[in-house]
Write a structure and sequence with these properties.
alpha/beta; Rossmann fold; Jelly Rolls; 2 domains; 13 strands
Length: 209
C-alpha cells in the first residue's frame, strides 16, 4: 500500500505523475488534486489557504473532510502523515512541500525524519518533479537509477561510518560521512548500485536536471 500526500506548496512542486494506491489532500493541496481530476481518498487541514468558493469545490468532490482549527500544535502535513499511517502503508510519499516557505519545508523534513526512525519498516519519501528525498537507516540499500541520474548523501544527526558505495561513478569502501561535509554531493548512479553504512541516519537526495 502506497499513500501519497499532496500538500499546498507551490503548484509546480507537486508531482502529479505519482501513481499511489491512495491520495490524501492537505489544505490547498486538496484543491490541486481536484483540479487535476484526482479524487483524494481523504482530506485534512484547517483550510485557511483556500477561499469559501474553493472549499465548496473540495467539499463537493470528497464528502468527508477532516477539518481542524488553525490554532493547533501539529502542522496540516503532520495530520496527513498521521492519517496515512492508518492505512498500514509500505510507503508514504509527500509532495507539494518543497519550494515556497522554507520553514514549512524544514518542518516536513523533521517530521519525516522522526517517522522514519519510529517506523523503520515504512519507506517515507519527499518528492517533487525533479527530486526524491529519503532518510536511510544503517544497513545496505539498493540504489535504483530510474528517472534520476544524480544522488547525494548527507549525515543527518551524527557521523556515518563504514560507508560503502557500489554501482555509482565514485565508489567508496568503509568511508566516513561527517556532519557538515559536502564531499558526497552529486554522485551518479550507473545502473543499479548500493549504499551501506553504520551509525546515524543518511539523508539521500536523488535528482535529475
Amino acid at each position: 500500500m502506497i499513500v501519497a500526500i499532496c500538500s499546498g506548496g507551490p503548484l509546480n512542486e507537486v508531482a502529479f505523475s505519482l501513481k499511489p494506491d491512495k491520495w490524501i489532500g492537505v489544505d490547498r493541496g486538496a484543491l490541486y488534486l481536484v483540479d487535476e481530476a484526482i479524487v483524494p481518498d481523504a482530506i485534512v487541514g484547517d483550510f485557511d489557504s483556500v477561499s469559501a468558493e474553493e472549499f465548496a469545490r473540495i467539499s463537493k468532490a470528497v464528502p468527508h473532510i477532516d477539518q481542524f482549527q488553525s490554532e493547533k500544535d501539529e502542522t496540516d502535513t503532520d495530520l496527513a502523515l498521521e492519517k496515512a499511517l492508518h492505512y498500514a502503508p509500505t510507503e508514504v510519499w509527500v509532495t507539494g512541500v518543497t519550494g515556497g516557505r522554507l520553514d514549512h519545508y524544514e518542518a516536513v523534513l523533521r517530521s519525516v525524519y522522526h517517522l522514519q526512525q519510529q517506523y523503520p519498516g515504512i519507506i517515507f519519501k519527499i518528492i517533487n518533479p525533479s527530486n526524491e528525498i529519503q532518510f536511510l537507516m544503517p544497513k545496505q540499500h539498493v540504489l535504483h537509477k530510474g528517472i534520476y541520474s544524480y544522488v547525494s548523501f548527507f549525515a543527518y544527526g551524527q557521523t556515518l561510518t563504514n560507508v560503502t558505495l557500489r554501482g555509482v561513478k565514485y565508489e567508496t569502501t568503509d568511508e566516513v560521512i561527517e556532519q557538515g561535509t559536502t564531499r558526497f554531493t552529486s554522485n551518479e548512479i550507473l545502473s543499479e548500485g548500493s549504499i551501506s553504512f553504520q551509525g546515524g541516519i543518511c539523508l539521500m537526495i536523488k535528482s535529475r536536471d
